[in-house]
Amino acid sequence: MLDTRTLNQQRQRVGDDESVWLFGYGSLIWKADFAFLERRRAFIRGWERRFWQGSHDHRGTPEAPGRVVTLIASPEAVCHGMAYRITGETLKPLDIREKNGYLRELTTLTFDDGTHAKGLVYLATEENPAYLGDAPLDAIAAHIDRAHGPSGANREYLLNLACALRELDIDDPHTFALADRLRANSSPRPLHQQPAEHQKP
Fold first, then answer.
1. Could you give the CA distance from residue 158 to residue 5 in angstroms, rounded to a whole number?
2. Which residue in the list 63, 76, 98, 197 is annotated as catalytic?
3. Which residue of 32, 65, 73, 86 could cross-link 197, Cys pair, CB 3.0 to 4.6 Å?
C-alpha cells in the first residue's frame, strides 16, 4: 500500500487556522463526520465517479481489498458532489482517512448558484498501487458484496452512496447500476446508519 499522508501535506500546505474548500464525491458526501465551516452542493467538470480504487484499510483488507470510488478523466463529464469549507486542522485527519493511494489535487468547484472557487479533491489514479481498474459490473458488484474491512462492509459504502446521490437528485448510472446488481444478487442485510453530520456553530 501507498501511504500518501506525508506527500499530500507537502503538495498543498494549509495552515491549521486557514480554510480551504474540499470536494467530496464518495463517502465524504454521506459520512461527514468532521467539523466544517460551510457545506454546499457543487460539481467539477471533466471527471466521472467509478468504483475502480481498492480499499485495503476501510472497506477491505490488504489480503482482500474492497472497491471504493475514484474519479476517471472524461472531458465532457460533470461530477456532482458536496463541497466543505474546512480548516487545515480538519484536513489532517482527512489525509489519514484518504491515505490509501489518494493524492490531493487542485480543482475548480462550481456551486449551485453558478459561482466558482478553487478547492481540493482526493484523487486516486491508475498509477497508485491500490488501483484495481475496470471490470464487468456484475464482477464489481460481487466483489463489493463479499468485501469487508475495519470501517465495515463494502456493500454498505456502495448502498449509502447510492442512497445519498438519489436524495440529492444526482444521476449516476455507474453507481446505481452497481447498487441494483448488488441488491438483486445478495441476501438482504441491514445497513449501518451513519451519524448525522457535525457542523461548527
1. 25
2. 98
3. 32
